[in-house]
Amino acid sequence: MSVFDLMVRIKNLLNFDGWSVKIGLENSLNIDDYPMIRIVPQKNAIDEGFDSWAEDIYFSVYIGVEFDPLNLERAYQKIYAKESDIYEILHNFQWEDGGLIRFIDTSKYENEHFLMLETSFKIQSFRLR
Question: How big is the CA angle at 93 (ends 91 and 94), to the nearest 5 degrees?
Answer without folding.
Answer: 145
